[in-house]
Amino acid sequence: MNLATRKPLAVAGVLAALTLGLTACGDDGDDTAAGTTSDSGMTSSAPSMTPSMAPSMAPSTEASTGSDMTGTDAASGLVGPGCADYAKAVPSGAGSVAGMAQDPLATAASNNPLLKTLVSAVSGKLNPKVDLVDTLNGDQFTVFAPVDAAFAKIDAKTLATLKTDDTLLTQILTYHVVPGQLSPEQVVGMQTTVEGGDVDVTGSGDSLKVNDANVICGGVKTANATVYLIDSVLMPAS
Amino acid sequence: MTGDSERDGFRGQRALGALSGLLAALLSLGTAELVAALLGRTSSPVIAVGGAFVDRTPRWLKEFAIRTFGENDKDVLIAGVVATVLVLALLVGALAVRRRVLGYAFIALLAAVAASAAVSRPNADWQDVLPSLVGGLLGGLALGLLLHAVSSRVAPRATTTEAGSQKPESQVGVGRRRFLVAAAGVGVAAVSTELIARAARSRLDVAASRAAVRLPVPASPAPALAPGAMLRTAGLSSFYTASRDFYRVDTALTVPQLTTEDWRLRIHGDVERELSLDWQQLLARPMIERDITLTCVSNEVGGNLVGTARWLGVPLKPLLEEAGPRARADQIVSRSVDGMTIGTPTAVVMDGRDAMLAVAMNGEPLLPKHGFPVRMVVPGLYGYVSATKWVTELELTSFDAYDAYWVKRGWAEQAPIKTASRIDTPRPFSKNPPGRVAVAGVAWAQHRGVSKVEVRVDGGPWQPAQLSAAGSKDLWRQWVWEWDATEPGTHKLEVRATDADGETQPQTREAPFPEGSQGWHSVVVRVTD
């Protein structure tokens, strides 16, 4: 994975995601609509779980962890200057705001075109010894998710270290996770991460900061976690 | 000229008045139905009036109706009552444009007739006047609103000839808009109250139908669980899953409402003899009771779309044998009342496993969301190829000839449940003090059975977990492993299960699509200093 040459904000990725042309969710009753969406879903490589294609994610799934299954109000409660651009770039499909609300965190993130590096880091692709997918999918969390451009700011030497130093990579990644789901109103303040260290969330409204990183778009719901896209990787005090 | 236009005006007014009367009456009826449904009444003012009418009908007319309309006589009666009210409403609405009091009197009379009919029915109490009164009140308000809009629409006309300016023209426009808005509002309200009332009514019917079910004693009761079949580790999933907590996965946007009275099962297609069963006939057959673990194909590794319940039902095999499937019929396509289709291999249903038409779950009639009154259960197959809820039809066909709902969408045609295991405790990213930590969870390999579960820490050697006592091979097993967590820091726990055939679940990850997820579940936790 060549992290150094990654384009800022992955504009190309966003456009690529658009071509998937998945509709959001919820129309299982309608044979034709469901068929159309599932057809395109099948060909995408992501293990997509939008309701019209997966039996489990029919509109009426009740087994999950108190999540917002309808997706209709997923777009409400978003904060950050990048939300409008993201909604415009990915208006529908599994990677859209409504689509992400249907899937567990790691699946939802894998459908988001801005989070390719983060997804490779938590899924054992960057470092085979670090695979947090099941763990991130298994409970309620708040996740500060550095976008690809944030990882591109890290120097090449550090990145190379992370590929082999699983303790350091785990430490950095877990420093981005806070237990429980926190809305934009609740997230402001000092939060203790699952790594053990604290992050300081400051600001209000559309201008939130996590330590020194800016929130691009926050309050994005997944089936089990609330996500805040940030523009820098957070570094725990070692 | 003036005379003509005035006459046209009155004619238009009268038409709008008739429309006002109609809409107000529809709103009255809808509201009355809704209030009756909210009060938990299975009868509404319309039905009460119909009933009262029948009571006063000469016998020859009754017999004529039954002869002519047969089973539909009640629908015809209700349609008659509604049609009568609506025709009267049209007439009275037209008259009420000039004398609004006529309109109010009509609605009051209607409400009074309906209310007295309602309280005169057997088992009625004072609350039964409420639907008629609320309906009448809202109908009256709507009529007043609409007639006011009608007169404000036409009134300026009278001044048009005197003033002769442009202004009245625009006032007419305003009046027309006001009437259209009011009429549309009342119309929408009338339709929505009626629709909501219907939905509520069918829920009431199903609740009553479910409450009236008396479950038969099984001819073959569930085998007793072995001692030690349930482990008691804190944080571990309970052996039986409560019906309310049981996962629900289907395509129904609203839960289909089907009563036992309306339920029929048809077995047809490639069979020697078509069969049709009603609820009483189904219940008269010998029943089996079995503990079975169900799993959804969409369950992710570590997911919770799996659960165990005690099912009571009619075995499918003898029923199908009566119908006599033809040799080429290798697929049973089951249909639910909402049109959902699910395809199950005939050979699997006929191989002696406890495939059944279930009527009860955990000792109670099925909850509506779990398929009341009848659903299919086939041990060992994912739900999307076996567990049809609200099932009303079994069609014998072939896999070549027909693709069921999810198969059309690319999911596998045949889907036995894969061996899987899950860590329930400790929780993801939990902080654990150093010392003994109970690592526990569940494992399933329906219709093969689980023979072994192993756990490892940080990719180290696999350690055998203690398993709960084995029950039927269609059941999951709980497991626990005592971890001596001495080293502070982050640790990764992994689990894998082996089925009774000696096959260990593979490590390679597969997504749920197209035939079920695969891989070892892992949980990362912290051991504190």
TrEMBL record, chain A:
UniProt-listed SMART domains: FAS1
Annotated region (Disordered), positions in chain: 27-74
The UniProt record lists the keyword Metal-binding: no
Domain of life: Bacteria
InterPro entries: Adhesion/Biosynth-related, FAS1_dom_sf, FAS1_domain
Ranges annotated as biased composition (Low complexity): 27-65
Domain FAS1: 102-234
Coiled coil: none
Record's keyword terms, sorted: Signal
Pfam families with a match to the protein in the record: Fasciclin
PROSITE patterns: FAS1, PROKAR_LIPOPROTEIN
Signal peptide: 1-26
PANTHER family: FI19380P1, PERIOSTIN-RELATED
Protein name: Fasciclin domain-containing protein
Natural source organism: Motilibacter deserti
